[in-house]
Amino acid sequence: MSNDIFILVEHRDGAVTDGTFEILGRARELASQAGGEAVALLLAAVVGPLAEQLGGTRILAVEDPGLAEFSPSAYEGVLAPIVTEREPLLLLAPNSAVGMDVAGGLSGATGLAMAAFATRIALVDGAPVITCQLFAGKIDVDVRFRDGRGICTVVAGAYPASAGRTAGSPRVETVSMSVTDQRVRFRRLIRPEAGDVDITREAILVSVGRGIGEQDNIELVEELAAALGGAVSSSRPIADSGWLPRTRQVGKSGLRVKPKLYLALGISGAPEHLEGMRDAELIVAVNTDPHAPIFGVAHFGAVADILDVIPALTKRLG
Amino acid sequence: MEFVVLLKQVPDLAEELEIDATGRDLARDWLSYVTSEWDEYALEEALQLRDLAGGTVTCLALDTGSVEELLATCLARGADRVIKVGTFERQPDSHTSARAFAGALRTIGHDLVLVGVQAIDDVDGQLGPILAAELGLPHVSVVTHIAVGTDGTTVSANQEYAGGVVAEFEVDLPAVLGVQTSREAPRYAPVSRVRQLMKTAAIEALEAPAGHDGGSIVESMSVPGAAGHAEMIGGDAAAVADRIVAILAERGLAKTGAAS
User: Fold this and answer.
1) Number of Cα atoms under 13 Å in the Cβ half of residue B154
2) Which residue in chain B has the smallest CA separation from A289?
3) Range of the structural domain that residue B243 is part of
4) Which chain A residues have a beta carbon less than 8 Å from that of B174?
5) B-chain residues within 8 Å CB-CB of A184?
6) What is the pTM of this model?
7) Number of C-alpha atoms within 13 angstroms, CB side, residue A58?
8) Of A92, B51, B77, B227, which residue is least crowded by CB atoms under 10 Å?
9) In this structure, are B74 and B191 located in the same domain?
10) B245–A317: do the CB atoms touch at under 8 Å?
11) Domain A199-317 fold
12) ipTM
């Protein structure tokens, strides 16, 4: 057993993701409290250039041509024996598709307990206590592990990525393993087609969610955006319905935006949406549900029907 | 091709959630439940895939004493067979659920197991990867665009990443996929049809092996703090609009500060 805090390194297109740096920064703090070390688990076809991005971090690396791209079965096949043998106090993974697959798969394979949707990780008397954001952000649940050790998926934005980016040279320990499980095979990366508008570059976003009710009402939102000199963005259900292009979607599987103004209209604020917009300079939210989690990140909020508020705003700004 | 869908009910978020006297659970007496949103997508995908590739759709839910309506709804939407699994006082954690479903699946044919990618009460992780580990099957989470390969031994599916980037995977069957969304909105089942099926349909039952939980212990629950709460604007739509325009004007974000 060790008091080390492991983190899963997620990388794509040769770059370590922001979510990785977020958990790496927290892992360093926790490891120093626990008297252990933060250890980054890095799986790749060529480890060197990725390891360099992790600064002065201790790295356990597995290098194999079968790890050129992420595959759940390849990653879990390699990681399960490492985690079982090294017995970290905690293994942190980003709450991304990659992290969800690896964390759940490893929990199932190793018998280690797991906590999901973590927004806060602390050590109390040396044991992890995890705050999990459940019920679409409406309830916080504090969880501990019966055995005092476990795996945890951490919501994007829970900790600053800046704390994870440090100078220095990595100390890489290469573990000799090869990929044998090839039942999930990577075929290709598909990138979004460029849209007419790049919402990550807009200063003002008028963002619309399920509360808009029907497709015809999107026009009202476009009129308001025009009056404000901004662009229209959306939460996931609007893009899923095809009412706006996927390139306008804000959130976990959409885009991360930091506009001067984010006007959230009829968006309840599921954690997946919040991670894409919580850093906006000014957030104003209108929703009929007074308990909508969007009001937890908004600077100003109103409980009202957006179909009344939108035309009233457009009229005043026109 | 045998498609299996695993479903569960979760508290309806349209209702206000309260915490009970123990401080470790929701006050469940007054809660109403709905089928987990992502499970609905998984069912819709299974029905669409069956209609394209042929075969059957079997729906499983853990028997918490109130799953007849959920399973009857699956039949009304077009599932071929529905089975309640085990006996549970309430919805157990994901690890217990995975062990119970794995026990059932050892006796039920399954080429492709579809689950919702997540649920709002997944405190100990998501069912899909944990179940796959129990059964020794490959899995992929957060997928859309599932297609069965021409020879019926593989599927392709897209896994979603940040920024609208997706990876296309080919997966050997049998496999477990965590469905993010369906190609079309989940189909509607008339309430009258569901009610009729609750009386007449054959809902099968399967025992589940007793399994231990995932080892994650809830210490306490709380409603997220008011600390980060928005300053609320009162009044009717006109008053709200006036105030928002004034806020934007103060910050130079609106072309006009004139409230009419």
Assistant:
1) 15
2) B14
3) 230-260
4) none
5) 138-140, 169-172, 175
6) 0.92
7) 10
8) B227
9) yes
10) yes
11) Rossmann fold (3.40.50)
12) 0.92
